[in-house]
């Protein structure tokens, strides 16, 4: 939804008088060498649809500390061939397994009571994973299965290294391993991941003021960014009265 809002807003309000000139002036602030690289990447993207060139140019702009928010957004819009990009479209950052199913194989959700919490008690965690559903075709230990139909496999994609994945994949398809065996490396990996988390959390459990301070700092940072964005938004909409 946020992507749609940003796209629509940019489309309606992104054009500004003298946009091209302002974008070129912003590019000059990068210094001649970097400006040249950005222009070349822009041409590659606009003429050949090279998405990697666009990503490289964006990354380069992101690293420029000397650009104002307005110039940066102008250049983002310039790169894509549109107007000034006032609101950035949020992008998904996905791991290989884009989501983890819950321990019942459905979407993981607290209301479904199928979650593994970040500081789950070790015994409860073991029990939850041991009782996870698996490929329904594996009725008996001797039935071969298909990891793609098994929620445990999604956990392997996140938690296991290549060797363990191969072992699980092959063992499942050939009925060489049982499901409990297959789940063990996942249990071990989740426990290993959570150990340090539990230790780190203890400090904050002992002193919740630390958490409140972190939240207050975060709010202040968010407020500052939101203020800058809203100034841009009002300016673009002609609602800036200063
Ligand atoms: S062997 Fe592993 S991947 Fe295959 S069905 Fe059992 S738990 Fe799932």
Task: Pick out its properties.
single chain, about 240 residues, mainly alpha, Tyrosyl-Transfer RNA Synthetase, 2 domains, binds iron/sulfur cluster
Structure report:
The chain has 242 residues and is mainly α. The chain folds into 2 domains: 90 residues, no CATH class; 97 residues, Tyrosyl-Transfer RNA Synthetase. It is built from 10 helices and no strands. The longest helix is centred in the last third of the chain and has 30 residues. The protein starts with a helix and ends in a 5-residue tail after the last helix. The relative contact order is 0.09. Bound molecules: iron/sulfur cluster. Iron/sulfur cluster binds next to helix 7, helix 8 and helix 9.
CATH architecture of the largest domain: Orthogonal Bundle
CATH superfamily descriptor of the largest domain: Tyrosyl-Transfer RNA Synthetase
Identify the bound ligands.
Answer: iron/sulfur cluster
The secondary-structure class comes to mainly alpha
Number of helices: 10
Question: Which H/E pattern describes the elements?
Answer: HHHHHHHHHH
**Outline, from the CA principal axes?**
elongated
**What is the CA-atom radius of gyration, in angstroms?**
25 Å
Q: Layout of SSEs?
A:
Blueprint: H1 2-13, H2 19-28, H3 32-48, H4 51-62, H5 69-80, H6 122-130, H7 151-159, H8 162-173, H9 179-206, H10 208-237
Bound molecules: iron/sulfur cluster.
Residues 134-135, 138, 145, 147, 150, 152-153, 168, 172, 177, 179, 182-183 line the site of iron/sulfur cluster (SF4).
What does this entry show, briefly?
The protein has 242 residues and is mostly helical.
